[in-house]
Amino acid sequence: xxxxNHNVVEAATRDTHLDTTAAPQDAPVQxxxxxxxxxxxxxxxxxxxxxxxxxSASEGDDLREELEEVFEGDFDFRGSYAxxxxxxxxxxxxxxxxxVGPIGLxxxxxxxxxxxxxxxxxxxxxxxxxxIDTSVRHTWEIEPARVSFGNAVWRTWMEETVVRGVAxxxxxxxxxxxxxxxxxxxxxxxxxxHFLPHQDTVKxxxxxxxxxxxxxxxxxxxxxxVSHSSSQQVFSFDSNSLLSTAVMAWYTDVQHEVKPITSGxxxxxxxxxxxxxxxxxxxxxxxxxxxxxxxxxxLKKWRTYKYPDIEPNIxxxxxxxxxxxxxxxxxxxxxxxxxxxxxxxxxxxATEQEFFVGLANLTYHQTxxxxxxxxxxxxxxxxxxxxxxxxxxxxxxxxxxxxxxxYDSDCDDDDDEEVPGIDEVTxxxxxxxxxxxxxGNKPARSKKISLDLENLVQQDAFEDVEPDEDHYEGYMxxxxxxxxQWYRRTVLIIMPEESARSVLYxxxxxxxxxxxxxxxxxxxxxxxxxxxxNIVLNNFQHSPATLVTMAQYxxxxxxxxxWRRVLSAGNWTASSVLxxxxxxxxxxxxxxxxxxxxxEQIVQKAPQISRGISLIRDLVENGPQEDCQMAQQWADQLxxxxxxxxxxxxxxxxxxxxxxARKQGLSYLTCxxxxxxxxxxxxxxxxxxxxxxxxxxxTYFVSPPEAEGSSTSExxxxxxxxxxxxxxxxxxxxxxxxxxxxxxxxxPYYSHRPRPPPQSLVTHTTRVIQILDLCIDVGVLxxxxxxxxxxxxxxxxxxxxxxxxxxPVISHIRQKLSTTNESVSFNSDVFVDFMGLILQTLKxxxxxxxxxxxxxxxxxxxxxxxxxFVPRLEKNVALYHxxxxxxxxxVKDETAIVTKSTATDPDSKNSVPRFLxxxxxxxxxxxxxxxxxxxxxxxxxxxxxxxQLRQLLTTKNLDISSSPFLELIQVVLGSYLRFVLGARPNPxxxxxxxKLGCGCSDCQVLDNFLMSKSLEQTFRLVQARRTHLERQLxxxxxxxxxxxxxxxxxxxxxxxxxxxVADYQSWMQRQSQTKTFLGTIGDGNMLRKIAGHRYGDVxxxxxxxxxxxxxxxxxxxxxxxxxxxxxxATGRTPSTTxxxxxxxxxxxxxxxxxxxxxxxxxxxxxxxxxxMWPSQPALSASTPAIVMALGSxxxxxxxxxxxxxxPGTNKRKKSTMVSMxxxxxxxxx
Length: 1229
What we know:
There is one protein chain. By secondary structure, the protein is of the alpha+beta class. Helices cover about 40% and strands about 15% of the residues. The strands form nine sheets. A seven-stranded antiparallel sheet has the order 1-16-12-19-10-8-4. Strands 20, 21, 22, 23, 24, 25 and 26 form a seven-stranded antiparallel sheet that branches. The longest helix is centred in the C-terminal third of the chain and has 23 residues, at about 1060-1080. It is extended and about 140 Å long. InterPro entries: Pro_4_hyd_alph_FE2OG_OXY. It holds the Pfam family 2OG-FeII_Oxy_3.
C-alpha cells in the first residue's frame, strides 16, 4: 500500500517544522562501497539468507508466540538514530572567515562566491586513501581555524538549545554530563553539490554523532536522506531556508546522503558531538539487524498464509506507555521511548510487506466469582475499588458513592481496598477503540472492534496485574459475590493490508491516502492506489466532493474505466452527478465516443426529464468544438427518445413540454402526451402545473406566429379543449394520492403528540384548495362549481369533515377572492349555494369561521340568521369563543348582518330600532355559553363589548340610556358594583400603614413594601441582614407576619401583610378598576341618566360606604340619592309585585353566591326578590325574543312572540313585559 513514508513517521518524534517530502522513488541511488565514511553492507546476501529461512519455515507455527518473541528483542532503545528541527528565532552568529571577512546572513551570491574562492573541494576517504571526486562528493569546505563568531550568544544557544535537544532526541542518558560540540568544518553547497550515501567516521576521541547547522541561505533541493537498519528519514528545509536555521544530527554509524542542490547556495556548519563523562562509554546505536530480520520473516510468513487462520486477522501488541485518544490522534508523534523506537523499526517493514500499522486504546474486561467470598458481611454492598486512577469510574463509585449512588455508612477507605480478586473467570471481553494510523488518520468504520485474547501478542498479559478499575457486587444469597475488572492499555495494531481494506478502511481514510499519493506520484497510480479507489467507490454514500475528486484522479491517471465507475456511482445533485467542468474534462481526456454512453446513462438517471435535457444542451454548448456536430446529432436523438418514452413527468418538466408543444403544436399534447399519461396516477401536481402553464401561453397557442397574430375559432377551440381535457383528468383523480387528515382527537392516552399523516400523501384539504385556486386563476368557475359538488358527494359536511376540510377551504377561498380576484366575489352564486349547504349542516363552528359565515349571512339576510342559523346552534354551550368572535364582529362591522334590518316597529310609540334584536339575543347566548365566575364574565364579555356597543349606537344616533339598552346597562352596572367591587372592609378595624425601618438600604426596601399595594414580598439576604429586618418587623406585628424560607441561598424572609390590610388594599384595587369600568359606560351625566333614582346608591357603593343592593328597583333610594332623581331617566315608577301571580317566581339574583372575598351584610343581600319591569313594546311574531338565563334554582322562561313560556308547563301566559332584572350575567342555566 501507499503509506506516508516511514521516514516521516520517524521524523515526527522530534520537534519539527520540517518538510518531510519523500524523494522520487525512481531517482537513481549510487553506492560507495569502499569509502572511509561508508559502512560496508551485504544486504543482498542477507536477503538471500532471509528468503532461504522463509522458505524453510514450517507451516503451523504460532503467530502469536513468534511475534511476542520478536518484540521482546532489542527494541528497548529509548532514543532515535537521527534528529532534525527548524528554528526561526536562532541568533545570528556574526560569521567571519579569515581571508574573506564578515559574511552576511541570509547568504548572498556575492559572499558565496567569495567563500568559494577561499575554500577547497571537500575530499572523501576511500580505503586508506583520501580522494576528491565531485561525482561522489561535490562540496566546498573551510577549516575551523579560519572560522570565528562575533556573537557570544551563538555559543550559548548551541550549548543550551541545540546540544541539549540533540542529546535528548538521540537517547543520551540524562544522568551523564551533557556532551560538547566541536566545530569540524564550514561547508558550502552550490548548484549540483551533493554527497552520495556514506557513514561518518569518528574524527575525535569519544565522538558519537554529527551535528549539521544550516545557516540562513536561500536554496532549493539538497534533501538529506538518513537510514538505519530498515528505517529511513528525509530532512528537507529548502522552503524555509531564507530566514530560518535548520539543525540535523545523527549517530556516526547512520548512513546518510545529501541530494543535489538544484539552485542557490547552502551554507552549513559541521560539528562533532563528543561524549565527556569519564568512566561511561559513549552512547551507541543497538545492533538491530537480527531483530529486524526476524520481524521481517514473521510478517512475510503471515502475509503468505503460513500461520493458521485467526479471526479477525489482526494482532495487538501492548505498548510500554498509555496514550489518550487526543494523543493517538497525532499518530506516531505521540509515542515515547521504547514505543517510538519499536514502531520506527516496524514501519518500513510493514510498508515492504504490505501491512497496516496503527495505534488504539484497548479495554479488557473480565467477570468472575469473588476469591474467598462466602460470608454475610458484604451483603447488599456495592463497591468499586480504587483502581489505578482514583476512586472508580466517576469518582466514588459510578454515580457517586457506590455504583448505584449510595453506600453503606461503614464503607470507609479500608473497605474499598478489600475488593477481592477473581477466583474463577466467567466472562471476558476485549475491545479496541480510537484506532488511528501513524499519520493520525482514523481508518476504522466502527467506534469499537471486538477481539479475543488470541488477537493479543502478549500471552498472560493480565495475569497477576492490578486492574485499572474493579467492582465488587458482594454476597448474593446462595451465590458468592461477583467481581468485575477492567484493564486499559494502548496497543499497536498490526494486520495485513488486504484485511485492513475489507475490515477497517473507510471512504474518507482511503481518500486521504489517495491525496497523499497524488502529491508524491502525480499521474502515476500504484496498484494500491487503485485498491483505495475501489474502497471509495464501493461506499454507498458518496458526497459530491468525493465524486469530483475521484473523477479528477481518473482523468489524471487516464483511467477510463475508473471515470465510468465514478459516473455510475453518483446520484444527481443540484445540477448533475458531476459538475459540467468535470464532465467536459472526461470528454476531452477520453474522446466523445468513449464517454457518450456514460453521459447518456447520467441523463437517463435525471430525476426530471427537464434536468436531463438541460444537461444535454449544456454538454453540447461547453464541449470541444471539434466534436460539436457529432455531439449535436447525439443530443437531438437522445432528446427525442426521452420525450417519446416519458412516463413519470414532474412539475419541473412542464416548461420543457410546453416549449415542445410550441414547436410541434398542441397536437403533441393531445395526441402524444395526454393519451400516454392520462391514466397514470400520482401526477396531480404535474397536471395542475400543466394547466397553469397552458393558460400563461394562451396568446401563443390561440394566435400562433404562423397566423400572424390573428386567432381563429379553430385555434381557440383547440386550446380550450386541450385545457378542459387536462382539467377533466384533475377532477377525475382529485382523491388519488391524497388522504384524510388525522382526526382532531386522535392522540392516544399514552402519547403527547398526535400521529402525523403519511408523509407521502397530501391531505384532501390541500388537494381541494389546489384545484379551487386553479379554477379561480384560470377563470373556469363553472368547473369550480362542479368540483365543489363532487367534493360534497365524496365528503359530506359532517362535523369532522367540516373541521378538517370545509372550514380551511372556505377560509382560503374567502381570503383569495378578497385579495387576488376583483371580478369574482365570495358572495357570487358559485359559492353562495355551496356555503348555504354548509351552513345547513354546521354544528361546531370555530372563531376562524366567523368572517365567511357573516359574509354568507349578509347575502341571506337577518331573517335567515334569526330564524334558522342561531336556533340550530344556541343549544351548544361549548361555542363560547365562536359566539364571542361573532358578536364582536357584528358590533365592530357597520356592514354586518344586523345593520341590514333597521326598520322600526310601527306599533311602538318609542319606535325602537330592530337591528339590535339579534345582537341582544346573541349576547344572552354568549353569557350562557361561558359559565364562569362573574368576574371572568366581565373581563371576557362585558368589559370589551360595552365600549363597542356604545360606538355602534353612536353611529346610529342612538342613546345608550334609552330603552331597551337602559335596562341591560342597569343590570350590568348593578352586578358589577355588587359582585365585582363588593363591600369595603370595615376601615375602623384597620391599622394605619406605617414604616418600620431604620433607614438603611434593606429597611428602605421594607418600608417601600409596607406603603405599597403589594401583599407579600420575599427578602433573600444573608443571616445578619435578615436578623436586622426581623428586629424591625417585631415592632409591627399588628401590620405583618413573617417566616423564614430555609431553601436556597441565601435563605429568604417572607413578609405578609395582615388579612385586614390585604383585604382593604384588594378592595382599593377593585375600586380603581371599577372607576375604569364606569368610564367605559359614560361620563358622570350619562351615569346619572342610567342610574336614575339609584345614582346615589352607585356613588355610595363606589365610595365603599354601603354595598349596592339588587335587584335594581327592589330597594328605596338612599336619602343621598333622592336629591338626584326620584323617577330616573325614564320617569318610570318601579313595581315590586309580580303582575302574573300564576307564573313561577323569577329569581333575580345575578349570581348564585357572592364572591368569596365578600361578606354577606345581612339577610337582605341573599334574599331572592321577584320583580317585573313596566310594560315594554312587544316583540313581533317574526322575530325571536331574547332567551334569558335565570338562576340555577329556577326554570328558564322563553319569549316567543308576546307569549311567555315557563319550561315544565304547557301554559302560555300573555305578557307584554320583559324582566331585564332576570338576565343572568353569569351564564348559569
